[in-house]
Amino acid sequence: MDLKERFLKYVSYDTQSSEESTTFPSTEKQKVLLAALRDEMEALGMTEVTMDQYGYVMGTVPASKGCENAPVIGFIAHVDTSPDMSGKEVKPRVIDEYDGNDIALNGQLTMRVADFPELAFFKGHTLIHTDGTTLLGADDKAGVAEIMTAAEYLMAHPEVKHGKIRIGFTPDEEVGRGVDFFDVKAFGAASAYTADDGRISIAASPTRVGMLILIKRIEKLGDLQMPLSEAEFKKLTLRDMNLINKMADEQEAQTALAARGRGD
Q1: Which of 81, 84, 28 is nearest to 53 (CA)?
Q2: Are 56 and 177 contacting, i.e. CB atoms less than 8 angstroms apart?
């Protein structure tokens, strides 16, 4: 299954979480996709595959030969979609080789380049969008699909050298409860990275890989001294990272407004 096919399969599952619920996960329907991911991991030949009572799914891509002593890294994504809009009966539409023009979602709604200038970056790429009546669910089923596609590749290509890789999928991130019962010890990764939103998000002890991700993000902020040393990076707290993300977002917004004012 390729990346696009896998993503389109995942968005067909309604996994909307609920802010009103007192259960965990907040909706049982999230467990349907989580169970499917567990089964898919097992079908790929991954090891240590589990799904606990809360719906957390974990699995392992074993280390390649000779790399058994390498630090364990993890990749995490959430399956739930926002309570703000329905994620049921999603009707994704695929645009091959996007031409850079406005995108008609349906008869009433259009995604205009004037309002979303970042669309210009994707000219010539394949885009997948909703019909405007539901969420698409790319947050974060795109991350889930990326991780599973990478796992499938590594399982099929033992010649690629890597240490043990742990994969985790969680419920209820959209309602702020995604880590409430996440078993960090059972996950067992020295460092873990979330595939969500394209921003820096590092759990456990940062590594040079994480530092490079952070550098990419910070380089947009011309007033910061770069590059950070690894020692300096390891001193950064989650609060620091969130502040960096906020600063970058503000600068990107200002750049977009300036471009719109110039008529770019």
Answers
A1: 28
A2: no
pLDDT (0 to 100) of residue 237:
54
Q: Residues 140, 152, 172, 173: which is the catalytic one?
A: 173
- Give the HSE-up count for residue 150: Cα atoms under 13 Å, Cβ half-sphere: 16
Q: Say which DSSP state 96 is in.
A: S
d(CA 121, CA 20): 38
Long-range contacts at 247-253 (CB < 8 A, ≥ 24 apart): 247/221, 248/217, 248/218, 248/220, 248/221, 251/220, 251/221, 252/220
Maximum separation of any 2 CA atoms in the chain, in Å: 58
Helix (H, G, I), strand (E, B) or coil at 30: helix
> Could you tell me if residue 121 is left (phi over 0), alpha (psi between -120 and 50 degrees) or otherwise beta?
alpha
Q: What is the mean pLDDT of the chain?
A: 82
Q: What's the chain's Rg over C-alpha atoms?
A: 20
Annotated catalytic, 80? Answer: yes
pLDDT tens-place string over residues 201-258: 444 333 333 333 344 444 444 444 444 454 555 555 555 556 555 655 665 566 555 6
Beta bridge partners of 127: 95
Cα gap 145→8, rounded to integer Å: 9
Helices vs strands, H then E, count in the chain: 7, 10
Catalytic residue among 14, 40, 80, 140: 80
**Which of 210, 201, 206 lies closest to 178 in space, CA to CA?**
201
In the annotation, is 84 catalytic? Answer: no
Q: Which two tokens stand for residue 19?
A: 């802010």
Can you give the three-state secondary structure of 105-157, one letter per residue? CCCCCEECCCCCHHHHHHCCCCEEECCCCCCCCHHHHHHHHHHHHHHHHHHHC
